[in-house]
Write a structure and sequence with these properties.
Layout lengths: L6 E12 L5 E2 L8 H18 L3 E7 L2 H9 L5 E3 L5 E4 L2 E4 L1 E6 L3 E6 L4 H6 L13 E7 L3 E9 L18 H39 L4 E6 L20 E2 L2 E2 L5 H9 L2 E3 L16 E3 L2 E3 L2 E6 L11 E8 L2 H4 L3 H4 L8 E7 L2
Parallel strand pairs: 1-3, 2-6, 10-11
Antiparallel strand pairs: 1-19, 3-7, 4-7, 5-6, 8-9, 9-10, 11-17, 12-13, 14-17, 15-16, 18-19
Length: about 350
């Protein structure tokens, strides 16, 4: 029996400035030498070999054609992007894209569009746009059916306003202006990130209304799922009251309907690893955080009475972050790839 009829693997992987030389990322001097580029390619190849994903979402892609070729070498022949990396000047890129690769056929792929009615309802600027357009794709998985897959990279926490220091750091006015810019810029990034999460969820709702299918969201969310900023992305999962009624007191039918429009953290759907044992996927100032997630619809929730699959294993490849080896990890990512293995139910 084909193993795809019983199990398949899904992964999210932030590649960290994946750009083919002589192109540069963000600044003119940020160009990989050929030996460093080859090291980066080998490191990514080894990760793909170890993970062996069937579906994988990538972030921080400046050179999609090079990645497409690399993915094809790992039995991932179907590859899509929905936007182009932006070039600031000559060979300097400043806005990477997300990409999706799959062993299974990708039937359709589009960029998630901004819902202007929602933007108006949220009282935001009408020219709002995603910092990095997310992918919405439909994939046909042999032995399972069609699945909606979203690949996203939400806005980072980095301030959207430039610092105001003039060089006279001791001056009260200069310091106060920079502190103000940092606080306001960070809040602007939070608004951007939260709005992006809300727009993706709104798109999921609209797609579910048209035709219900299992949903997966693969992404670097640049925040914790415990943050209020991302709660809109899991939808009804954390709703206690709806239309003035306690959800827990509702009949099974309405509760099931709410779960239809909910997403669940893949880690929470597995039963092997305890919450206290969850590995960070990114480190900043020696502090670990979980920023990379695989979110799944109720179809993958074992205790949902109409589930058709479950999360068999959850894996974070973090050795390069916790115990790096210069000879192999010199050009690694600053994120750990996350993978879940799905077991199909019969």
């Amino acid at each position: 029996m084909n193993t795809y009829t019983t199990h398949f693997k899904v992964c999210t992987f932030n590649l960290f400035n994946y750009v083919l030389p002589p192109n540069a990322y963000y600044e003119t001097e940020n160009i990989y030498t050929l030996p460093k580029w080859e090291k980066k390619q080998r490191w990514i190849s080894q990760q793909l070999l170890n993970l062996s994903p069937d579906i994988i979402g990538f972030q921080e892609v400046f050179s999609p054609e090079a990645l497409k070729d690399l993915a094809a070498q790992h039995d991932l022949p179907h590859f899509v992007t929905v936007s182009e990396p932006e070039v600031r000047a000559h060979h300097v890129y400043e806005k990477p894209v997300v990409a999706l690769a799959s062993r299974f056929p990708i039937l359709t792929a589009q960029a998630v569009e901004v819902d202007l009615a929602l933007i108006d309802a949220l009282k935001l600027q009408p020219d709002f746009k995603f910092s990095r357009p997310p992918i919405r794709a439909e994939i046909k998985i042999k032995g399972f059916g069609n699945v909606l897959v979203y690949v996203t990279h939400l806005k980072s926490k980095r301030s959207q306003l430039k610092p105001q220091l003039t060089g006279h750091e001791a001056e009260f006015d200069s310091i106060s202006e920079s502190v103000s810019a940092q606080v306001h810029g960070s809040w602007a990034s939070t608004i951007q990130r939260g709005t992006e999460a809300t727009l993706i969820y709104q798109d999921i709702i609209e797609q579910m209304r048209k035709r219900e299918r299992p949903v997966m969201v693969l992404g670097d969310l640049n925040d914790s799922m415990a943050s209020p900023v991302l709660q809109s992305l899991v939808g009804g999962k954390n709703i206690d009251r709806l239309d003035g009624k306690n959800v827990a007191g509702m009949a099974i039918g309405p509760q099931r309907a709410i779960q239809r429009f909910s997403l669940f953290d893949g880690f929470e759907l597995q039963e092997t690893i305890l919450p206290a044992q969850r590995k960070p996927t990114h480190y900043f100032a020696n502090r670990g955080n979980v920023l990379d997630y695989i979110l799944l619809s109720k179809d993958f929730k074992a205790d949902y009475d109409h589930s058709i699959a479950s999360v068999h294993t959850y894996q974070v490849n973090d050795a390069h972050l916790t115990n790096p080896h210069p000879e192999t990890d010199a050009e690694c990512s600053d994120h750990a790839p996350v993978l879940v293995e799905i077991e199909i139910r019969y």
